[in-house]
Design goal:
This is Calx-beta domain-containing protein. The chain has two helices and 18 strands. By secondary structure, it is mostly beta strands. It folds into two domains: 124 residues, Immunoglobulin-like (Sandwich); 68 residues. The protein is elongated, with a radius of gyration of 27 Å.
Length: 229
Amino acid sequence: MGIIRRSALVLGAVVVCVLGFVAPQAQAAKPTTLTVGNFSSYEYLPTCSNTAPYPCGPTALNLEFRIYTSRSYNYAITVGWQISGGTATPGADFTGPTSGTVTIAANTINNAVQIPLVYDGVGEPTETFQVHLTSASVPADLSSVGTETILDGSRIPADCSLSKTSPDQESMTCTGRPAGQTWYLLAECHYPLGDPEIRGNDVTGNGTSSGVCGFGTTTLYGATFQVMP
């Protein structure tokens, strides 16, 4: 009788262990909601070379959009996407594939897709393209549509220009600012321990705002125009 009781206890423990185990396939059976975020980017970032005579010019940017899942999984999932619709023209306003897949890593809830933008130097209205979901490796709602926006030009007004006289100094000169507007240059320094920003001197109306990294061999990368609140 004692042997029978012990056998029953062991069998019960095995049943509990088996029933308590949830396989990845069972976890995947719970549907998730996928969402395409709405993002925007300017066409280009004004930059200056780090090699004398330090010419400045536009560098085309990427528009990054993200796909989110309403829950995380303990394994990676893949999501298919496709660009369709909107006012932007593939090949003329942006390049790269117009469809693909993105992998959302285990225990995370989103990942990004980079779409290279085209800088053509032509003034254009704001343009958009739409991102549709086409597939998922888990049961999911694929109805979300993201609208991504391409902003013409850059964050530097058309009447402002960059110049550079050394690897660690950059200036912005504006000639068409409102008389009462106070603004300044904001630039990013490259440095082995990070990329701190520097702020140039304040200017009211037209003038020049200059900034120096001050980290020896550090170089400047990019610049933006900031208006005082």
